Amino acid sequence: xxxFFITALTASLVFGTASAMKPVTIxxxxxxxxxxxVITSAGVYNGVNDPKDFSGNTLHGDxxxxxxxxxxxxxxxxxxxxxxYGQSGKSWETTPDGRDGFQNIFLxxxxxxxxxxxxxxxxxxxxxxxxxxxxxPDDQLWFNNFRMGQWPNFYDDxxxxxxxxxxxQFFHQMTPSFPTEQKVIVDAxxxxxxxxxxxxxxxxxxxxxxxWMTAIQSDKVKGVIALEPGTFPFPxxxxxxxxxxxxxxxxxxxxxxxxxxxxxxKIPIVVYFGDNIPTGDKPVANWGFDNWRTRLNLARKWEAxxxxxxxxxxxxxxxxxxxxxxxxxxxxxxxxxEVANVMERWLKSKNLDK
Amino acid sequence: xxxFFITALTASLVFGTASAMKPVTIxxxxxxxxxxxVITSAGVYNGVNDPKDFSGNTLHGDxxxxxxxxxxxxxxxxxxxxxxYGQSGKSWETTPDGRDGFQNIFLxxxxxxxxxxxxxxxxxxxxxxxxxxxxxPDDQLWFNNFRMGQWPNFYDDxxxxxxxxxxxQFFHQMTPSFPTEQKVIVDAxxxxxxxxxxxxxxxxxxxxxxxWMTAIQSDKVKGVIALEPGTFPFPxxxxxxxxxxxxxxxxxxxxxxxxxxxxxxKIPIVVYFGDNIPTGDKPVANWGFDNWRTRLNLARKWEAxxxxxxxxxxxxxxxxxxxxxxxxxxxxxxxxxEVANVMERWLKSKNLDK
Lengths: 354, 354
What we know:
Two copies of one chain form a homodimer.
Chain A: E1 4-6, E2 24-26, E3 28-34, E4 37-40, E5 58-61, E6 64-70, E7 78-82, H1 102-108, E8 112-117, E9 131-133, H2 139-145, E10 149-150, E11 153-154, H3 164-172, H4 182-196, E12 199-204, H5 207-217, E13 221-227, E14 233-235, E15 254-256, H6 258-264, E16 268-273, H7 287-308, E17 312-317, H8 336-349
Parallel strand pairs in A: 7-8, 7-12, 12-13, 13-16, 14-15, 16-17
Antiparallel strand pairs in A: 1-2, 3-6, 4-5, 6-8, 10-11
């Protein structure tokens, strides 16, 4: 492998943009597949004689793909990034308008980064179960649900670039989500942590649910930063009711055993939500807003249960700490460096930045 | 973006392997989507009011995904890597046994690298046409076709690692290939070169066919290195007959116009084939061998036509230059540094290493 010294910043040769960074040094980069399973077709293998006979053939699927970069003098803990629905590891790379994403921002600060494509997604496309992609146009659903605006209008204060090319890049980076049981993702993520070593799990959106279960099952997960997670785990018997919502995606809590739940109380956890999320117990007409109202409410209920059992958890609504305009894609918004800064301050406060 | 200085080599922290490299400096890394198109569903958009109404929604698909890294003091020309069938950009990254792939090897030598996932593949999964993945086990077909051996046995001299974990990594890195017209890939690749700037196109296997058409249509392609391409373009009226073969994949030439063909004669081209490819015009019983016998024959016929029209082309059977044991995956074999060395000598000989 190799060492990289990341130094002064230049304007991007490819995007023509510029940003400012401090010197950093990295020692190694590469990729690997983690976890997964093997299925075998019926019959006796005969492929040497007849290539059209697939009897006794195998398929290796359901693994995660990981691209990693390790700075020299790296901090102790790896940062392992798990994307959300309709996304791949691309979520954490260059932003739609060509700025540095969290991959580069945290590398520059001396963190080891492990960027995951979850099983059956992106470069981890091989699946042990069949699936169909209908090619059904739905970009506008996500534009609204991700709180960029109400199509075709952006919200006035939104921290997303307004030019056509950035929006095109964003829509193109979406990638099919095929049906995948949470256990398939969690098993692969546990295997990722066996390779990355002890680290912080950083999840986004639908990656949040798998993230909680990974943190429960892997002793390599030393902390969790969840960006607008889709759900939260509650101990059996303590699940809150599902709130009424104008969103097509009700916020449904996940049930875990008391023993599983208690594992989560043993590590520091922080959850961030962006801007434009209404408060209150009543559905609002803007379903893209309401989707996140119910999730922020669920987060507050989860925080209460976590704290009752001794959990070390914070729920941060970014406008409360002076960071405004964020969409659901906190890691790519125009102010993503500010978001990275609050994340890093939290890491420092928990002694996880060593 | 950022600068990397790649320096002395360390043992891999993740894989536990070691290799030796020279210092290199890199200035920028990131990713982008290139090309593609937008489809729109029928009807009038109403998603603000009804999220389940997908009328007038768009889908952005058929683009390529590219991850790039640019060394400081980089050579003039970009290296743009296009993978083959059942693969993604992962082909060029870490090898199945944890050594550096061409991504790292050429970065270390001062080349700008652009690693592509073709449309409807890997992180470029969004497609404007529906597709189905049958999850049909077929690993052994590829093991035989890629000349690793005749399953379950490796060839005695093969330059592929023998341990179970390496083979498992290799099979897991395969990823579904969905039906994609060549034009979709070529259009995206032309857009990739608009971002990468002038460069050398390095193709593998099924990427070869799209590669020739990209080189014909984009004036940014200043040379082509094709690793065991699946096909070759011939001018109308000069296509060779399809040879009989025991392989299920006959080597079929691609027809182009005389004008298109002449574009290819204007740039330097080299084609590499690995080891264990029989000669002659008669099919051999080992279909995995025979598949490549017909392709190497086709390459020789193409070389003759190219030279007739003034083309600057070399076909290199690696054992003829003392490099032995290579499978179809020249870039990942145990001797991949030797393969990189002959490629770089060719680049130098054509003044493409500046």
